[in-house]
Design a protein that fits this description.
alpha/beta, TIM Barrel, 8-stranded parallel beta barrel, 11 helices, 8 strands, 16% strand, globular
Amino acid sequence: MAISTLSIVLSGERCGGDPDAWLAFIHGAFESGVNTFELISPTPALLEGLAYAVRSVERRLVFVALRLPDNLTPDEIVADVDRVLAATGLEMLDLAILNGESDPHNDCVWALEDLRATSRVRRLGIVAESDEAMRHVHGGAFDVLIAPFNLLSGWRERLRVRTAAEKGMSVIASNHFPDEARAMAEPKAPKRRWFSKPYPLAGLGAYNFLHDTYGWNAEEICLGYALTETALASVTVEVASLKHLEALAEVTERDLPAAVAAQIEMARFSAERAAGTERRRA
């Protein structure tokens, strides 16, 4: 099965909605080339809208993942999966995701393996945002890693992605537009000094390009950068509207401007050098 470059979060926590609204949104996603969806705390309305939406396409053309809540018992995991299958009319979920940061018990992992063995779940995924959670990746039970990756990611985050890929796992990136980048994207008024001349290299090695690149906004630049990582199968995004989704979907067909790619690397190098200096001082 081919999954789309973007994986859209459908969260019942953020929007209860009604079935028709969810149906319209999912159809809009189809029209934008998105076929991959991650369910989080799905409401009955969300599941009903999804059920109607998937009836309009071939089942093999839609990838549906379920992120399971933390601290479920094995029986609750099975019940949650069966509830989603019954409400949507799907015979199988393409992916069931556990949060490795909550340190799920082995019994929970075994419950998911039983679901995979009985063909109610196709693949198993694990969220790993720390080195401690990476032990689940090394354990071999999971097929997919969900981990943060963005233009602020350091060598540890990159190593997690590369390690999973080397083990034959598919990798889905999360947090493509972190809060730190959102803050950097706010343009700051320069301090005015009397009799000062403009410095031609001012801003070099900084993240000013996030808010002054023509034709790109900060989130689009961050998404475009994440898409340059060849080890990623998809990038999970949360969107506020179909218009927002359409704008992000267009990024998948564009290349970052060469100047921006160079500025990102210089900014990363400057940040890493500054961090190294601080560590030596400490």
